[in-house]
């Protein structure tokens, strides 16, 4: 049995806390918003996961010291924009042997750091093993034990295998991968492509256009990844094409939904408000544009989504992406 702290009580942190508890581990969940914890403790429900029952026996705390102390594994499950501040605040309470697991999907805009890079940087000189856990995994499905796969990626094979062992159960098959950078890049970039797929739906285009955007989007992500030195195989695995498929097509995907709303004429602010949960594809855009420049790699769909977010007509942009070779910005 492992002792595990989960930092973040959003849908993903909650679904993972439930899974890990039912796997037989001791689990404490922390949130920056104490009212969130009180609701879960009292109702055994998360407001955004209506069909998911939260078991008795999970522990809740608004105190980072309690959540981090004595843990074998610490799971960072807050949205990407909060990762740095949460890691910095948690740092004094993290033992050097605790395995730090990031399940957030994003790239820090100022540094282009991946989420495990941000955690390492925020914690300071640390020998803690770091693992990125990513794949086609909607909380809504993991929370009711629908079959799912996920990738445990780390430079430290023993840490990747520990995470594999701790998370695996008959409903969750966990693979290991040493290409952390590739796995994390896929997790961030696929949300942007999912926005594009949603935009296409929102305009009223069909499955043909969506399939084209998803496929060309995958090529775009892989092109950037290869320029960054990632392993090509990662892009065509579960953390790559697997996660892109689920994010760009699932009714559970808030990125896809936000894209749909943009395609239907809402502004980015209206779309985020209507979705009511973090839309990581929008957060990832500035870093993606920066990486495109740094590595001199064309990302036409990403650029197109950025234009739409800044007020361009969605139909004009998608028509351009579908109909003629991209000429660069
Ligand atoms: N939901 C999923 O199915 C899923 C699956 C895989 C990965 N992820 C990733 O997990 C991360 C978290 O996503 P989510 O879906 O749980 O988000 P969410 O929108 O459900 O949760 C947001 C949570 O952020 C936390 N929060 C809000 N303000 C904060 C602050 N100031 N400081 C610290 N924490 C604060 C709160 O606990 C809040 O519930 C994202 O990066 C997402 O891409 C989500």
Summarize the structure in short.
The chain is an alpha/beta fold. The chain has 2 domains: 3-178, NAD(P)-binding Rossmann-like Domain (Rossmann fold); 187-323, N-(1-d-carboxylethyl)-l-norvaline Dehydrogenase, domain 2 (Orthogonal Bundle). The protein has 16 helices and 8 strands.
* CATH class category of the largest domain: Alpha Beta
Assigned CATH superfamily of the largest domain: NAD(P)-binding Rossmann-like Domain
What is the name of the CATH architecture of the largest domain? 3-Layer(aba) Sandwich
Domain module tally: 2
Which overall shape is indicated by the principal axes computed on the Cα atoms? globular
Q: What ligands does this structure carry? A: nicotinamide-adenine-dinucleotide
Kindly describe this structure:
The chain is an alpha/beta fold and 329 residues long. It folds into two domains: 3-178, Rossmann fold (3-Layer(aba) Sandwich), CATH 3.40.50; 187-323, N-(1-d-carboxylethyl)-l-norvaline Dehydrogenase, domain 2 (Orthogonal Bundle), CATH 1.10.1040.10. Helix content is 53%, strand content 12%. It is built from 16 helices and eight strands. It has helices at residues 11-22, 34-43, 64-68, 80-90, 115-123, 139-142, 157-167, 180-203, 207-227, 232-235, 238-249, 254-263, 268-275, 280-294, 300-309, 314-323, and strands at residues 3-7, 26-30, 59-61, 73-76, 99-102, 130-134, 148-153, 172-177. It has an eight-stranded mixed sheet, sandwiched between helices. Helix 2 (34-43) links the parallel strand 2 (26-30) and strand 3 (59-61). Helix 14 (280-294) packs across helix 15 (300-309). The longest helix is centred in the middle third of the chain and has 24 residues, at 180-203. Residues 8-13, 31-33, 36, 48, 77-80, 82, 86, 103-106, 137-139, 277-278, 280 line the site of nicotinamide-adenine-dinucleotide. Residues 8-13, 31-33, 36, 48, 77-80, 82, 86, 103-106, 137-139, 277-278, 280 line the site of nicotinamide-adenine-dinucleotide (NAD).
């Amino acid at each position: 049995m492992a002792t595990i702290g989960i930092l973040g009580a959003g849908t993903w942190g909650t679904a993972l806390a439930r899974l890990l508890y039912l796997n037989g581990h001791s689990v404490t969940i922390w949130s920056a918003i104490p009212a969130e914890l009180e609701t879960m403790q009292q109702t055994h429900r998360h407001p955004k996961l209506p069909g998911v029952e939260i078991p008795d026996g999970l522990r809740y705390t608004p105190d980072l010291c309690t959540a981090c102390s004595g843990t074998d594994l610490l799971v960072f499950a807050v949205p990407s924009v909060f990762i740095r501040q949460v890691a910095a605040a948690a740092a004094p309470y993290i033992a050097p042997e605790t395995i730090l697991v990031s399940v957030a999907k994003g790239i820090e805009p100022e540094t282009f750091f991946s989420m495990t890079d941000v955690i390492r940087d925020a914690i300071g000189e640390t020998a803690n093993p770091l693992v990125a856990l990513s794949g086609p995994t909607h909380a809504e499905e993991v929370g009711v034990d629908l079959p799912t796969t996920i990738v445990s990626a780390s430079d430290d094979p023993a840490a990747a295998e520990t995470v594999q062992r701790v998370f695996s159960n008959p409903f969750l098959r966990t693979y290991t991968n040493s290409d952390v950078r590739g796995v994390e890049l896929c997790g961030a970039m696929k949300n942007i492509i999912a926005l594009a797929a949603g935009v296409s739906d929102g305009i009223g285009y069909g499955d043909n256009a969506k399939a084209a955007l998803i496929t060309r989007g995958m090529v775009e992500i892989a092109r950037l990844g290869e320029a960054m030195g990632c392993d090509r195989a990662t892009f065509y695995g579960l953390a790559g094409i697997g996660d892109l498929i689920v994010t760009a097509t699932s009714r559970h995907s808030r990125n896809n939904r936000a894209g749909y709303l943009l395609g239907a004429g809402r502004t980015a602010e209206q779309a985020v408000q209507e979705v009511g949960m973090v839309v990581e594809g929008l957060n990832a855009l500035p870093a993606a544009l920066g990486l495109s420049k740094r590595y001199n790699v064309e990302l036409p769909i990403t650029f197109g989504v950025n234009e739409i977010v800044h007020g361009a007509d969605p139909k004009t942009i998608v028509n351009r992406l579908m109909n003629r070779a991209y000429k660069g910005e």
